[in-house]
Recover the amino acids of this structure.
């Protein structure tokens, strides 16, 4: 069924699982959000994308949370600026799997946080990402499950070192690595047991990861109530944000959660949550948006949560975010198709409301 955005005054359908209401959607609304207080998070490929978005648009992003993800630019080949076309992406993919997930290239100095920090500075100096100075005040949350064999803890620790090398103070970085989770987003009560491996990559480890990462980024927050989320989870048309972008790898529809307090009042913050591989709507439906735990914290703290979605394609069968260059050589920069599309969504959310 084609989904369309219905104004808040129309009836909504009571959703299952997370307890929030859902509306069908066609247009992402302009909500006068506070773009200067944007934050990002993600798991696995989504963690890498969160870091890439943060670096590309550091002027707007105040903090990032990387769950089972490594340092910015980790997969980029040394030949990235020399070999044009798809050959670079293939080199990057080999490096990504062996050196930025399994840590199998440690003997060859991969990953090298100091070198990656220098690469980030070069990109900033050439105005391909925002100034590094805008990242130094960010608050960072990093997580590695003790039993994660997909993206091993050493890779996440390399992300910690990268942030320190670009000048983020150690006191601004929280690295959680003592929870016996596998490769998954962790919750306090949703999902299968903590040792479960597989879709929807959401597990119950008696740890509220959504709350922990949002508090690390924003500081003191209001605790959520015991009631189910009362805002609106809606689908929206992503295609209007990919116009003119070639090989973007984005789905036609995305998801957004809007607390009741943000539906009629401007100034809410936006948190962008990037799903992981095998975790988009094709594979798990709305499970990531419903069960990860963001909505309860969003309700009590005036935070709009954007859940952009990738497409599942023959070249990207797991629906991963592009952290190795399959969308093009600019995948780390402001010109990256996926980063451009998501930033356009953020611009829409922060635009003035219609007077009509």
């Amino acid at each position: 069924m084609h989904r369309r955005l219905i104004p808040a005054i129309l009836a909504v359908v009571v959703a299952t699982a997370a307890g929030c209401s859902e509306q069908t959607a066609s247009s992402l609304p302009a909500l006068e959000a506070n773009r200067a207080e944007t934050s990002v998070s993600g798991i696995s490929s989504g963690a890498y994308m969160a870091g890439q978005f943060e670096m590309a648009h550091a002027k707007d992003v105040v903090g990032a949370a990387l769950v089972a993800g490594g340092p910015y630019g980790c997969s980029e080949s040394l030949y990235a600026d020399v070999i044009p076309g798809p050959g670079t992406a293939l080199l990057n993919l080999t490096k990504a799997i062996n050196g930025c997930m399994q840590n199998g290239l440690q003997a060859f100095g991969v990953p090298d946080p100091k070198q990656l920090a220098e690469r980030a500075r070069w990109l900033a100096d050439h105005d391909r990402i925002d100034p590094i100075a805008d990242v130094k005040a960010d608050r960072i949350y990093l997580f590695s499950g003790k039993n994660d064999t997909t993206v091993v803890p050493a890779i996440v620790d390399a992300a910690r070192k990268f942030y320190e090398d670009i000048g983020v103070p150690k006191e601004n970085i929280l690295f959680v690595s003592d929870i016996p989770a596998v490769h998954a987003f962790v919750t306090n009560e949703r999902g299968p047991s903590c040792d479960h491996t597989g879709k929807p990559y959401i597990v119950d480890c008696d740890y509220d990861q959504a709350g922990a990462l949002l508090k690390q980024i924003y500081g003191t927050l209001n605790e959520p109530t015991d009631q189910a989320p009362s805002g609106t989870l809606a689908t929206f048309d992503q295609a209007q944000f990919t116009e003119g972008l070639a090989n973007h790898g984005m789905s036609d529809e995305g998801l957004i959660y809007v607390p009741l307090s943000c539906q009629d009042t401007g100034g809410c913050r936006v948190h962008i949550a990037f799903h992981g591989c095998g975790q988009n709507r094709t594979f798990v439906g709305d499970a990531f948006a419903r069960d990860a735990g963001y909505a309860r914290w969003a309700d009590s703290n005036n935070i709009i949560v954007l859940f952009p979605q990738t497409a599942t394609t023959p070249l990207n069968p797991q629906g991963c975010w592009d952290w190795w260059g399959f969308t093009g050589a600019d995948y780390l920069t402001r010109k990256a198709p996926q980063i451009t599309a998501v930033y356009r969504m953020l611009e829409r959310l922060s635009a003035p409301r219609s007077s009509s």
